[in-house]
Structure formats: C-alpha cells, structure tokens
Design brief:
The chain has about 375 residues and is mainly β. The longest helix has 5 residues. The N terminus is likely disordered. The protein has two domains: about 110 residues, no CATH class; about 190 residues, Vitelline Membrane Outer Layer Protein I, subunit A, CATH 2.100.10. About 0% of the residues lie in helices and about 40% in strands. The two termini are about 70 Å apart.
Length: about 375
Amino acid sequence: MSANPIGTAGSGTAGDEPSPVSSGGAGAESGPLAGGAPAKPDASGTQPAGRGSNAGNATAGSAGKRPTGGSGGSAPKAGHSAQAGRAGDDADSGTADPSSCGDTRSDPQNCGECGRVCSGAHAAARCSDGSCALDACEAGYADCDATFDNGCEIALNTLAHCGACDRACAPIDNGLMTCAANSCSALRARVGPAAPASSEPVHGSVGGAVYDLLCPVGEVLTGLEAGVYQEAVHAFNVRCAPVVLSGTPEAPVVKLGEAHVLPASAGDLTNSALEVQRFDCPSDTWVSGVAGWLIQYAGESRLFIRTISLACSRAQSAGGDRFSFVPMVIVPPGSSQSEGDTTYSDMCGAGKVVVGFTGFAGAAIDGLQTHCADLTTERSTSTPSQ
C-alpha cells in the first residue's frame, strides 16, 4: 500500500599679521605722523560676497589701520575684505604685503578673506573675484540646485535623477526599478509558459466535460476551493496570485499579490450536496506539486480523483535569474486511504511552480493533469523621462 501523500483537499580665523614698523631708519616704512590722524583708506577696495560667499565689507575706519609703533599689527578680522585690509599697508608701493595671505580674489585657500577655503561636496571648487564657485562635479554627481553651499549634492544613479538632473525612472508594478548606467532598469518575476508536469496524459480517466484551469500569465497557483462529498473531491477551482518582487535587485525577495479564484470550475461547485472547503498555501508560498488518491467506485471500471494534496514551497534567490524553493506542506482533512485506492503524484521540477490543471469532470473529477512553469526573473531597460 502506498504512503499517505502530502496535504490533501477533499480532505577661518584671521591670524595676526606681523608688520614690523620702526619710528625711523633707512628702509623703514613711513608710518602715520605723530599726533596726526591716520589716513582714511579707500573704501572702494572692499570685496562683495558672491554665491556661497561669507565675505563681508570692510568699513573705511578700520581698513588698513596700523599701530603707530611696536613690533607688529593686527590682520583684518574675519569677515572683512582682504583687499580693504591691505589698503593702507602698502599705500606707498601699491603691492601686496609679502606677509599677507595672498591674492584673495583668486586663491581658493583664501577666497575673499584669509583662511576661507573653497570646497564643495563631490566637487572641485575655485575662487573667482573673491567668491567661491563650483568648478566641476565628481563623476556620477551633479549640482542640481545651482547652490554652492551643498556642492554637487545629487547622485545620478537614483530613480529621480538617472544620468542627469530630473531624469526620472517611472515605478513599475510587481517589480523593482533601478537606475544603472544612466538608464532605467526594471527587474520582474517571470512565469514561463505552462507545460504538463509529466508524460502521463491524465491521472484518473477520460470522461465528462473538459476543464482548463490555468492561472493568468504571470500568476501562480496558491490554493484550492474544493467541493467535497463523502471524503472525495467532486468539483474544484483554483486560486491564483501574481508574483511580486521586493528587496533589492541584488537580493530579490519573492512575494505574492492578492489571490483570486478563476471564473469557471472543474465540476459543479454550486451543487448543494457538496461541502466547499478552501485550502491555501501559507503566506507568500505557492504550489510546487500535487499528489493524492485515486478511487474506483463500485460498478465503474475506471478510476476517479478522490483527493488533491498540495505541496507548497517558498522561493529564495539562487543567484542570477534563478530561484531555489524551500518545501512546505499543507495537509487538509480527508487524506486517508480507502480500500482500493491508488496514488498519483505530480511534482514540478527544480525552479518550477504549478500554474493550473486540465482534465475531465462530470459528477466527479474524472481526470487531472498538472501544469508547471519556470519561475525566473527578467530585466529590461528604458530611457528616463525628462
């Protein structure tokens, strides 16, 4: 006697700037006359702040002010224009003080003032007329808001900015959309064409009306609704659900959408003599094979389907476009063997799922043939929309 089949239906700081000035002697710089008022610097030498610049304007009263004696003087305070700070230092020669921080109009390390460094995220920066500006972005980044302060702030491999600012990839149903190589890349689950699980044309016998219960393209079988009478299935319908990908393209996770029954059934599920029972695989698993008992009724020379058992599996990524399945089992009631019963079994191969049944049915389920399909992933590319 055969073993009982699996699950069954029908059962910057400003530093000090040294400025040696003596009260006399050959080669000494001329300083302010004792008791006289210091000369006013030319306030027109101030440097306005540009985009992203924090430079301020020097006041005429402070620009170039030097001590009347001693061994040193103070550099202009942070926030003052470096040009204004030098206005009185070199009034005689008109050249920069060798001890100053350089040309603050173009030096990216001292832009607009001593110690102000031009730098931006993912960008090379320059100093132009005393104001910091972005020079070039790193590969794969862009300055989408035209603001210096946050640099090249946008990575160009996102769905909103794929290859360029504001070039978007449209989302897709039941799949994963990514941006790769400046193109939109869609990853979807693919349920291949249905094919019989075995060379056996049909389990049971030929008789009654032909039925064809195949899930729509892209969907897999997740359960049954069976009309049971005296522990035997006399009619049934299938429940199907679309395959949904979540997770990441590198490690996709297979889930299922909302399940539904097909419009038609094998046999008459509306027969009031039948007890309709529903059997579903656990959440996010599907049918990967069926098995059950065949029965020969008294006075009949042929076999009929008595029970339909579901073998359920969960998928996990096996690398590339393939999945491996982790077996699970559903055992509905009514799976015991009766006298004269024989077994049947249709298990889909590795990486395959059940997508439906065909066969014959009348007052009972005369015959059943299982159909399987490959479950893989497929990738397609498209141009982002501007």
